[in-house]
Predict the 3D structure of the following.
Amino acid sequence: MATSRPTFDSSAMQRALELAVRGQGYVEPNPLVGAVIASSDGTAIVAEGWHARFGEAHAEVAALVAAGTNARGGTLYVTLEPCCHQGKTPPCTSAIIAAGIARVVVASGDPFPAVNGGGIAALQAAGVVVEMGLHSQQGMRLIAPFCKLLTQKKPWLIAKWAMSLDGRMATHPPDSPWISSEESRAIVHELRGRVDAIFVGIGTAIADDPLLTARPAGPRQPLRIVLDTQARLPLSSQLVKSARDIPLLVATGPEAPVERLAALRESGCHIWQGREPSRAARLESLLQELGDRRMTNVLVEGGSEVLGSLFAHKAIDEVWTFIAPKIIGGNALTSPLSGESLSGISDASALDIEHMAYPGGDIFMRGLLRYPRTT
């Protein structure tokens, strides 16, 4: 029995969405994009492509090259509206028209001002049939970090923490920097290897003496950031000792001792000194600075004061949490987020879970943070 067109369209776009994810860590600050080309009779996929690296061919062009003459009269499925302007690469719309594509199915429009409907209009003007909105929600989720950087000039913030079943992040005194399994830590290292930056508070930096690198290395070497108001980061720490080889930014306050700043600089650290009087205002200014540097994804690994402050200001976009099947107990032990408690459960935020797994017996949840509406 022949596959119906709507069913084929859906599966072809799902494949394009899967392909787009392959660009994670390689294409930012560009958006993730995947493309699939189907035969002229609409019964088979003849080529696939995705945006593989920043500055290189876009997904549509990669698929067109793979298809060759098989593209003529076919359907192009693409997760994002094709570009119609000259950037680092020529307009994708020109390549699509020249290849003889008859129909283009698009998941979501491109909010970039130089495109934003112009790609669709260019294709339609050339007689190409364009259909918009197939799996649009998944298409928009795919480019959410790109959209935030474009519209808010700030990076997408991913908060990560590991805790016991009763919400504890460590024993007291801590006897190990890890509460989660080796398999869970491998997932975190993969995430580290595709983000632009990782930051922690000075408390975590001193208590855990982390290196904050991806092991094994990923497509990116993230900038390591320590929020350190008084520039207390020990010169003997792993972070400072590796600063000449792996970039380290120490974000300080306006009253950080001059001699400490000089010592950190002499050790190879970069210094960002916020001038705002409050920690919250300095954190906001730092996020704007990272946005100015066109950082798309930033990972926040703690501690509880940093996570609590970001949560209170509704700055966290995505959460990765690992729950170890262990019960620690105790009244004075750290929870993942500090700060003022809510007045009622109706004020609580929710996690729209996108993925669940059980690495090494842990519970791993990943999803988008949905804050309560304010009146």
Q: What stands out?
A: The chain has twelve helices and 14 strands. The longest helix spans residues 5-20. The chain has a mean pLDDT of 93.
